[in-house]
Amino acid sequence: MPAKPDAARPKRLALPVRRQMNLTEAAHDRLRELNQRWKLSNNYLLVVLLEQLDAYADPEKLDAAFERFIAEYGAPEGGMEKKPGS
2, 12, 35, 63 — which has fewest CB within 10 A? Predict the structure, then answer.
């Protein structure tokens, strides 16, 4: 007989997309601070931050942050490219 699901145990979120990620020291430090507070892995922290972005980020301030970054470091031509098979 299969085990009944434990109502007290939260469900796990599947993270099917796996990519290597490089960060600045400052960005990594911020993730570590969030990890210490919320006890979530970097993967889950990034899911929350990105999926809930509209709930906490001011669109004009976000645009300004990207514009500052691109002014300093530039941006690749064409943005992200979809790899074959993904």
Answer: 2
